[in-house]
Design brief:
Blueprint (H helix, E strand, L loop, with lengths): L5 H7 L6 H5 L5 H28 L4 H18 L7 E2 L5 H11 L1 H20 L11 H18 L1 H5 L10 H10 L6 H20 L7 H8 L2 H16 L6 H5 L17 H5 L1 H26 L5 H14 L9 E2 L1 H9 L6 H17 L8 H15 L3 H4 L6 H16 L2 H23 L1 E4 L4 H4 L7 E10 L5 H4 L15 E12 L1 H16 L3 E5 L3 H10 L1 H5 L4 E2 L2 H11 L3
Parallel strand pairs: 4-5, 5-6, 6-7
Antiparallel strand pairs: 1-2, 3-4
Length: about 575
């Protein structure tokens, strides 16, 4: 037996091998061209989304661009997926806004870096596969809830409302929007409304057709970029009185920020634990779900632990260069695949192209109206939500409905942390209830021949079926009433057939031990037969085999009945 500690064993199994390494085997100029085209296409898609996500999160638009550049680059070269694109994600908008509202921007940076360390640690200890155990009802619930909150957060800019700062909680947001209803800017409404219609209509315009020539080139343009360019041009040429990036933020710098170390205070660690765990948990779920989608599209299999480690490094480093939270992004990853990506080099090129755009064309972003970004985010929110799941609820169990709806409402009304905690609690509760219902303790009819000539005394036998764990121990406890007044009702010998008991936990063990002691105290006996490997191992390790006596732990029911007759003096 090895004497190495669990940490030492984990360290010996540690594997840091980014997917980029094996993807470069046999790499050639043709694949590079495919990756370059795909990366450029994704960069064009990511440009408006990165700015929109940043603004909606309560930070400057360049923060989103810096995140897409730095984090996107690191996720591609260090991650466990061949084609996944990393960067700012819509799922984090509400989370980040709430953290900034409560803790401030400086603490968001620290919390993001701490989440990066936590993500890397999860990957190091090979916990990537555990994320898939989160029930799909919880994932759908909080995803739809976040989509609603994203759309709600954009109502202000969509209608051009005169609101200095939106509150973070749901009910105050509704109240603030309603109180500002008289300040609607109809120019902003027109820009946002037409942009939203174009976003929904553009993909459908060419869906059933095969455009050629100029139409084909136009059809290849991403709808978000198209509406961004058109709306910006209209606002600039007509001098429409709507709020722009320039009027609100003063434009975007033409350079990446230099390395800046945050002021870290260990006293903040405890305070920032909740947002850190939230960022890490959502980042892990989002990135690994995205990687699974990519796998299904390209017939590949990602390394979840390497992906978490890559995500961890990206989230630790990006804030040092003016970025914030990053994760895998489904829409951009799908775009990357459809554009012909063959390796992580496509993700690298996406970051390079974005960097070139920032260095060359950053001043142009000052004219982008916030109304068009609001329309883009509402479009993203609609596509991110799995709304058909609400229509299909009647097809699923009551437990599924309760978990999904509860998680959805709690995400909208409170926050993601509460929603996921309650969702997981409900999922565990329903699971425990279900498993306990499947566990049965059935009486065994003792053959007449065994009763013939048996000494005086009552023998009862029961078969335990299923998992004897903390949620099901009541079914064994009910076999014997320990009250002194019930002594005469106890069997003189109680036999438990454990042949079909698949699992025993420590609570189940304690219950059987208590049952044995109750019987012995009242001059009665317990006999166990045919325990499986796992229960037997627990009996031995706990010392219960010695307490029970080897002669009372037998290999089959016939032997148990013979032992019962012996105990009765037969």
């Amino acid at each position: 037996m090895s004497s190495a500690s669990p940490f030492a064993r984990t360290l010996s199994q540690f594997r840091f091998r980014p997917r980029l390494i094996e993807s470069l085997q046999g790499y050639n100029a043709k694949r590079f061209m495919h990756d370059t085209v795909a990366g450029t296409t994704v960069a064009i898609v990511a440009l408006p989304l990165a700015m929109a996500f940043a603004i909606a999160s309560g930070v400057k638009p360049e923060v989103g661009l810096f995140t897409a550049i730095v984090a996107g680059f690191l996720i591609s070269i260090l991650g466990g997926s061949r084609v996944q694109i990393g960067g700012p994600a819509g799922a984090f908008i509400v989370i980040i806004y709430g953290i900034i509202e409560k803790y401030g921007l400086a603490n968001l940076i620290i919390s993001t870096m701490m989440a990066g360390v936590l993500l890397f640690t999860m990957g190091f200890f090979r916990l990537g596969n555990l994320v898939k155990f989160i029930p799909v009802s919880i994932v759908i619930g909080f995803t739809n809830g976040i989509a609603v909150l994203i759309a709600l957060s954009q109502v202000k800019d969509f209608f051009g409302l005169a609101i200095a700062k939106m509150p973070g909680d749901f009910f105050n947001q509704i109240a603030t929007l309603w109180s500002a209803r008289a300040s609607v800017n109809w120019y902003a409404v027109a820009i946002a409304g037409i942009s939203l219609v174009m976003l929904f209509a553009w993909p459908k315009e060419f869906k059933s057709k095969e455009p050629t020539g100029l139409k084909r080139i136009v059809a290849m343009l991403p709808a978000p970029l198209l509406v961004l360019v058109v709306a910006t041009a209209v606002v600039a040429l007509l001098h429409l009185p709507v709020e722009t990036i320039g009027s609100k933020f003063g434009g975007i710098p033409q350079a990446l920020p230099s390395l800046t170390l945050p002021d870290f205070d260990w006293t903040l660690v405890k305070q920032l634990l909740a947002p850190t765990v939230t960022i890490a948990l959502l980042g892990a779920i989002e990135s690994l779900l995205c990687a699974r989608v990519a796998d299904s599209m390209i017939g590949d299999r990602h390394d979840p632990n390497q992906e978490l480690m890559g995500q961890g490094v990206a989230n630790f480093v990006a804030p040092l260069f003016g970025g914030f939270v990053a994760t895998g992004t489904i829409a951009r990853t799908v775009t990357n695949i459809r554009a012909g990506a063959t390796s992580p080099i496509a993700g690298v090129m996406h970051s390079v192209v974005l960097l070139i755009i920032v260095l060359v064309a950053a001043p142009l972003a000052a004219s982008v109206p916030l109304a068009v970004l609001a329309a883009i985010l509402m479009f993203v929110a609609w596509n991110m939500g799995e709304w058909n799941e609400f229509q299909k609820l009647r097809q699923f169990s009551t437990n599924y409905k309760i978990i999904l709806v509860s998680t959805f409402l709690l995400t909208v009304i409170f926050d993601l942390t509460v929603a996921v905690e309650v969702g997981i609690f409900l999922a565990c509760l329903f699971f425990i209830t279900r498993i306990s219902q499947l566990t049965r303790v059935e009486p065994i009819e003792i053959d007449v021949q065994w009763r013939a000539g048996a000494p005086a005394g009552r023998i009862e036998a029961y078969r335990v079926i299923g998992s004897m764990f903390f949620g099901a121990v009541g079914k064994i406890e009910s076999l014997v009433d320990p009250a002194p007044s019930k002594r005469d009702e106890m069997p003189d010998v109680l036999i438990l057939d454990l042949d079909r008991m698949i699992n025993l936990d420590t609570t189940g063990l304690d219950t059987i031990e208590t049952l044995h002691r109750t019987l012995i105290k009242n001059g009665k006996h317990l006999v166990l037969c045919t325990p499986g490997e796992q229960p037997m191992s627990l009996f031995q390790r706990s010392g219960f085999t010695v307490e029970l006596g080897a002669q009372n732990l037998v290999c089959d029911l016939d032997t148990a009945l013979r032992r019962a007759r012996e105990l009765l003096g037969g």
